[in-house]
Design brief:
With about 325 residues, the chain is α+β, with helices and mostly antiparallel strands. The protein is about 25% helix and about 20% strand. It has one domain: q2cbj1_9rhob like domain (Jelly Rolls, Sandwich). The strands form three sheets. Strands 1, 2, 3, 5, 10, 12 and 13 form a seven-stranded antiparallel sheet that branches. It has a four-stranded antiparallel sheet with strand order 4-11-6-9. The structure holds 2-oxoglutaric acid.
């Protein structure tokens, strides 16, 4: 009889580092067979946009002779239209979907959250182009962006570079161990990022720079403060960040309720019966792995695209001040 494949797990030392420090750099996690299709899918999008801009006379060259990390940098020296168009979670092709449901990533998450696994549409593609202000992301905890109901939930982020990421091209920095405390006060900056002001960052830890070679990932706890600075090289620092949680935490994934399963409810005295819509209501969650609802798992990228397109944006609780 065929044995089921062994799950891909963190070593006990890696698990301890993640639990104690709130972050973990994992090398040699995703090989070219996984990343190349993602890069090809993104390159195809860059190419289509470039062709259009070129035909419209808005780009002087297609810069086709440049590789993945340099082409968009060259284009962006003329226009940031393409970087902006593909930034964030706008792409929903097969390779990106397959990366989100990569079994290695899911195995590692499952070991923390159990087998009913929700992937969040809040994935972000970040082509951090050289010397471009929007690429720098101020100190924040991912929980700052999530609903207060999920402050204590575990939402795991895999930050995955598609090129070697280092201090020079703007890899992430973290404040270790800070995930043991509460969600820190954030405020909205004009350009749309949340920031934790310096005075509100825990003073007992020193920031740690987290270079990650291509093929690796930085695993982040949702309450670990992190920051990234400008890219000072001449090439794009391409990365994606993917997020996962248990189906027992608030989710807008269209999943059935299991017998006896309670939906998490609001704890506030003002609205004790309020059922939180999701940890991040503006985007669509989906079931990415399940033992108990296996027929509800999203396995097709077109369905993934549909769920995201049809999602009705619901705002997050406005708990932070605005600039
Ligand atoms: O990729 C970056 O530079 C920032 C990423 C980030 O802040 C995040 O994944 O939450």
């Amino acid at each position: 009889m065929n044995q089921p494949p062994k799950p891909f797990l963190l070593s006990p030392a890696q698990r301890e580092q993640f639990e104690t420090e709130g972050y973990l750099v994992i090398e040699n996690l995703l090989d070219d067979a996984v990343l190349d299709p993602v890069i090809a899918e993104i390159s195809e999008q860059v190419d289509q946009h470039a062709q259009r801009l070129y035909e419209e006379g808005k780009l002087s060259s297609l810069y086709e002779e440049y590789d993945f990390s340099h082409r968009l940098a060259m284009i962006s020296s003329e226009t940031d239209v393409i970087a902006k168009a593909i930034w964030g979670g706008t792409l929903n092709g097969e390779a990106i979907f397959n990366l989100i449901r990569n079994p290695r990533l899911l195995d590692m998450v499952e070991a923390f959250t159990g087998p009913e696994l929700i992937a969040s549409s809040v994935y972000r593609l970040r082509p951090k182009i050289p010397n471009y202000n929007f690429g720098a992301v101020p100190w924040h905890q991912d929980s700052g962006y999530f609903e207060p109901f999920c402050d204590k939930a575990l939402v795991m982020t895999f930050w995955i570079p598609l090129v070697d990421a280092n201090e020079e091209n703007g890899c992430l920095w973290v404040l270790p161990r800070s995930h043991h405390s509460e969600v820190l006060p954030h405020r909205w900056r004009k350009e749309g990022y949340l920031v934790i002001d310096e005075k509100n960052l825990p003073a007992d830890q020193q920031p740690v720079c987290c270079p990650v070679p291509k093929g690796g990932a930085l695993l982040l706890h949702n309450r670990i403060p992190h920051v990234s600075y400008e890219n000072k090289t001449d090439a794009v620092r391409w990365s994606m960040d993917l997020r996962y949680q248990s189906a027992a935490s608030p989710t807008n994934a269209p999943i059935s309720k299991l017998p006896g399963e309670q939906l998490p409810r609001g704890s506030s005295a003002a609205e004790p019966d309020y059922i939180p819509p999701a940890c991040y209501p503006p985007e669509a969650d989906f079931l990415v792995r399940s033992k108990l609802r296996s027929n509800e798992v999203v396995t097709d990228h077109q369905q993934f695209a549909r769920i995201r397109d049809q999602h009705i944006n619901r705002p997050v609780t406005d708990r932070w001040s605005h600039e």
